[in-house]
Amino acid sequence: MNISLERILLALSILIFISLLYKIHLKNNRLLNSLTETKKAHRAILANIMHELRTPMSVIMGNLDLLKIWCNENDHSTQEKSVISMSRNGQYLLNILNSLSSRYTQFNKPKETKKEAINLEDLFKSAIKLACSYNPVSEKYVHINFVDTPATVISEDPTAITQILVNLINNALKFSSDSFDRNIIITVSITENNTKPHLEFKVQDFGIGISQNELKNIFTPFFQCNYTMSRPYRGLGLGLTISKNLVK
After folding, report:
1. Is the pTM of this model over 0.70?
2. DSSP labels for the chain?
3. 188 vs 101, which has greater pLDDT?
4. 196 phi and psi, to 5 degrees?
5. Are strands 116-119 and 196-204 parallel, antiparallel or unpaired?
6. What is the mean pLDDT of residues 165-186?
7. Using CA atoms, how far apart are residues 212 and 227, in angstroms rounded to an integer?
8. Residue 233's pLDDT is what?
9. Is the CB of residue 233 less than 8 Å from the CB of residue 174?
């Protein structure tokens, strides 16, 4: 049987091509495994950090409780208000640490949202107090408007919702501090989505605003609108990024 030189060359070319594809496949697998191990190591480090932070925070919270009792028993009402504010913020931070710790310890498990029954009115009022801790006077300018909310108790992750709310309210307060002639309005509504309640809330302020050109970047980590303008304002430009990830 005669085999032409062209066919031999074609067969060799196909074999070489298949061999190259196989080598690329092996290399990609090694890279993928390496990335997976790196991701696991990254999660393990973060889980350890969360754990190490939780321990001193628990001690701080315990001492704040004792201080609160002492203020109450010795009629130090002014100091007690400050201690209550510190305790509220400390518990908020501890809740975030607990939430992050549980997420980062589940390496190969699907992410599960910890849901529990929450009273929306209480949760929103608590979030406002947290956001206004650095300036308690500003609390009177923040108002909640419940629209079409037949149920004030829903099953959701209270820590995640509080984080989102605090970030949004902080932004509203931060950029409205010089124009409190109009109130900051939080509009809350619940709609049915496939027989499940769908929570929606909007935070409306009347501050300095943002240009149309910069709107597309507001969820970019560390983004600040007009750096020269934003320097007088506190923050790293992570609040909206974190909030978006929590919503997802």
Report:
1. no
2. ----HHHHHHHHHHHHHHHHHHHHHHHHHHHHHHHHHHHHHHHHHHHHHHHHHHHHHHHHHHHHHHHHHHHHHTT-HHHHHHHHHHHHHHHHHHHHHHHHHHHHT-SSSPP----EEEEHHHHHHHHHHHHTTT-GGGGGGEEEEEES-S-SEEEE-HHHHHHHHHHHHHHHHHTTTT-TTS-EEEEEEEEEETTEEEEEEEEE--SS---HHHHTTTTSTT--SSHHHHTTS---S-HHHHHHHHH-
3. 188
4. -110, 140
5. unpaired
6. 79
7. 16
8. 58
9. yes
List Cβ<8 Å contacts ≥24 apart for 26-32.
none
Residue keyed to tokens 């978006």 = 244
Chain centroid to Cα 121, Å, comes to: 21
Rounded distance, CA 59 to CA 122, Å?
A: 26
> Facing residues of 110 across strands?
none
Q: Which band of pLDDT confidence, cut at 50, 70 and 90, is reported for residue 240?
A: confident
Report pLDDT for 25.
Answer: 72
CA distance 18 to 2: 25
